[in-house]
Amino acid sequence: MSKLDVAAIKADFPIFKRTVRNDHRLVYLDSGATSQKPFQVLDAERNFYETHNAAVHRGAHLLAEEATDAFEHARANIASFIGAQADDLVFTKNATEAINLVSYSFLNATLKSQRGAPLPKGAERFVLAEGDEILVSEMEHHANLVPWQELCEKTGATLRWIGLTEDGRLDLSDTSLFNNRTKIVAVTHQSNLLGTVNDVPAIVKLAETVGALVFLDACQSVPHMPVDVVALGVDFIAWSGHKMLGPLGIGCLWGKSEVLSAMPPFISGGSMIESVSMERTTFAAPPKRFEAGVPMAAQAVGMSAAADYLRALGMDNVAEHEHMLTEAALAGLADIPGLRVIGPENSVDRGSAVSFVLEGLHPHDVGQVMDESGIAVRVGQHCAKPACIRYGVQATTRATFYIYNDLEDVDALVAGIYSAKKFFGV
Amino acid sequence: MKLENMYQEIILDHYKRPHGKGLAEQFDAEVHHVNPTCGDEITLRVSRGADGKIVVSYDNMGCSISQASASIMFDQINNLDFESGEAAVEHLIAMLQRTVEADEDILGDGIALAGVAQYPARVKCALLAWMAWKDAAIQAGADNNESKIFTESNKEQN
């Protein structure tokens, strides 16, 4: 049984005080898109603005000092949430930007190298040549696919991908995908469409044998399970604040310090410099090298409060709770005639994103009927069109569970699907 | 239940038994429009007659609103000239923005799509086929009476 007290948790989330269409209670099954926020996060952000607001890393006045302390404390706290050191954690506007930061480091290293411009020590591994390979998978969110496609188009590198098995897993049988041309392997930890939790140690092992970097899209894992970057052995992870109870507008890139140090900057401007003259600029050490402009201090403070909230619940308990809900949902869905789960049908190595299609019913219509009963699910391609194509579906309906969901919500989901079938007579 | 305002019987009838679905082999222009967030897709072809009338054919996938709306589009604007067809498209847009009262003479069964206006996320579904028609008609040069831009050899390639 779950160790989470869902009623007590729900009481922390102001949004559950409202009702939705036709005065229904809110059954929020779209945390995979964005999570709701507890008052602890909202209060932390508000408190920053009310009592410490100033531009961080600028100014000698008291508020500037306090704001800088709050921001850097948030960095250390969020880093410790994933078992990392503060200096290896870069704040970005979202996870997509974090992925672009890495892909643009490759591009910028490649362009600067071609012109003989100065590069950080160790930057050679970010310099791409025609024929180099970037390896992704067929289950990637567009955010972990399009930036790599773009990089290949600009540099002449080749994009390759790991295919998927019928039951929604990575097909790692073709190990020749990992070869001495592979520069980086960029895969998701947990698929936002299929729910699959990938075998990261196996991927890291394959990548290590060919000396490739490993980038892990952790948007769907850090909020939902214990993640320790040292144990994972990857070179980078990226995730966003808003999917882990934190504010919108902030994401994180963590990288091994020797890897971050070797990367040229992505966005340039104030704060990220060491010394500037009219002729040239030298850059600050990471993480500041990658944080141009006045940073999102209030959001960092809010995200840090979200990490505290989850830490207090215990990430093992969070994962166990979601696992229980996922098992119940998969069991409930299995009984519905004409329903096909897209992704693993069992709960082994599987997170709480449950996608499905219904014979004779388009997901948009399913979602609309559910919405009428207060059930918020996501419909469409979930920014993972290649995986939709792989499984021969135009779109899916997706439910995702989090700490404030319970078995009643699973029942509501199942009942909602039956209502949709009845409404459309299928 | 407000849902029935959007999913009126007449809409569901068009969804289940769409009119005019299936692509014509002869055409002057073809477009493919998608709704990237939800995956609705339509391929639409037009050919211009000597009399200025535009013959439309289409094939599509998607939700009930997008499919029903395509079927209604076929009923209402197939074989109209560009000006009349465009007027219908504009009227549909205005109805979905709730700036005009729906006129059945222009939209036919399309007046039943008025309920979609209550669900902003679905407006794109309702407009997909109609915007595709307008795009295809313009590509075929129907808006300024250009000579046909697609040659016979182009047709074969398509």
General description of the model:
The complex is a heterodimer of chains A (426) and B (158). The two termini of chain A are 35 Å apart. Chain A folds into two domains: 6-30 and 315-424, Alpha-Beta Complex (Aspartate Aminotransferase, domain 1), CATH 3.90.1150.10; 46-311, Type I PLP-dependent aspartate aminotransferase-like (Major domain) (Aspartate Aminotransferase, domain 2, 3-Layer(aba) Sandwich). In chain A, strands 4-10-9-8-7-5-6 form a seven-stranded mixed sheet. A four-stranded antiparallel sheet of chain A has the order 13-14-17-16, with helices on one face. With 426 residues, chain A is an alpha/beta fold. In chain A, helix 2 runs antiparallel to helix 9 and helix 9 packs across helix 10 (315-334). Chain A is built from 13 helices and 17 strands. Chain A is 38% helix and 16% strand. Chain A has helices spanning 6-11, 39-52, 62-81, 95-115, 146-155, 200-210, 229-232, 257-261, 297-313, 315-334, 363-372, 385-390, 407-424, and strands spanning 19-20, 24-25, 27-28, 89-92, 133-137, 158-162, 182-188, 213-217, 236-240, 251-255, 273-276, 281-283, 339-342, 354-358, 375-376, 378-380, 396-399. Chain B has a single domain (3-140), classed as Sufe protein. Chain: A (Alpha-Beta Complex). By secondary structure, chain B is of the alpha+beta class. Helix content of chain B is 43%, strand content 15%. Chain B is built from seven helices and three strands; from the N terminus they run H-H-E-E-E-H-H-H-H-H. The N and C termini of chain B lie far apart (46 Å). In chain B, strands 1-2-3 form a three-stranded antiparallel sheet, with helices on one face. The A-B interface holds A 21-22, 362-365, 368-369, 372, 379-381, 385, 388, 394-395, 423-424 and B 1-3, 6-7, 12, 36-41, 61-65, 119, 122, 125.
